[in-house]
Design brief:
The chain is mainly β. It is built from 2 helices and 17 strands. Strands 1, 3, 8, 9, 10, 11 and 15 form a 7-stranded antiparallel beta sheet that branches. A 4-stranded antiparallel beta sheet has the order 2-12-4-5, with no helix packed on it.
Length: about 220
């Protein structure tokens, strides 16, 4: 655990539950990795990449700030595994479908939060507007009863796509963060170093949302 705040100390509470038992040599270990792209310029956001060895993907939490007006959740999630290159083994049908909120999260003209054991939209900030730039969403999906297993490698991406005039896809430039969770056999690949707090900071001043520049 590292405190990257350059001014305030960190107060940390933790609890570890454990069992003393024999662990098989091929046991899979729990892993989690944070990612963030402040201004997505590729229309593809990488949830996780570089996983090597056998394991299974169990879920993701995504914090998504939309930087354009209109509907934002048309992107497909893709699971590239076991040697996939251009074409992934699993392809979704839309962001809202993957998080089990289809069609759209709009109910009678308003985004509506929901929680279930395995999927949910838990945050809409601010909650009193719809289809406006700067709005933020918190979503999760847990693959507990439908875990996605791989033998050699795994990469997971989700498209950053909305609708534009004329019913065409809009490549967006959203601010997206995520934490991906999976189990795998050790050793695991090295994790990339976290950026500094200046890159991670999110500011809000009154009713005006401040979107940090890319650099």
């Amino acid at each position: 655990m590292t405190n990257i705040n350059d001014a305030d100390p960190m107060t940390l509470y933790y609890q570890i539950n454990y069992t003393l038992t024999d662990v098989p040599a091929d046991a899979a270990y729990f892993h989690a990795q944070f990612q963030r792209t402040r201004i997505n310029e590729t229309s593809d956001y990488t949830i996780i990449d570089g996983i090597r060895r056998e394991g299974h993907y169990v879920g993701v939490y995504v914090a998504w700030q939309v930087n354009n007006n209109g509907w934002w959740g048309e992107g497909e999630i893709k699971f590239f595994m076991d040697g996939d290159k251009k074409f992934p083994t699993i392809v979704g049908t839309g962001t809202e479908d993957y998080f089990c909120g289809s069609y759209n999260f709009d109910r009678q003209g308003k985004y509506t939060t929901f929680t279930t054991p395995y999927a949910g939209l838990v945050q809409v900030l601010p909650s009193d507007i719809t289809y406006k730039s700067g709005q933020r969403f918190g979503l999760y999906r847990w693959h507990i009863v439908d875990s996605i297993r791989f033998k050699k490698d795994l990469r997971v991406t989700i498209q950053d796509l909305g609708w534009r005039h004329g019913g065409c896809y809009l490549p967006q430039q959203s601010d997206i963060s995520s934490v991906c969770f999976w189990y795998q056999a050790e050793p695991h690949a090295n994790f990339s170093q976290l950026p500094g707090w200046q890159h991670l900071e999110m500011n809000k001043c009154g009713n005006k949302r401040i979107i940090s520049p890319e650099k």
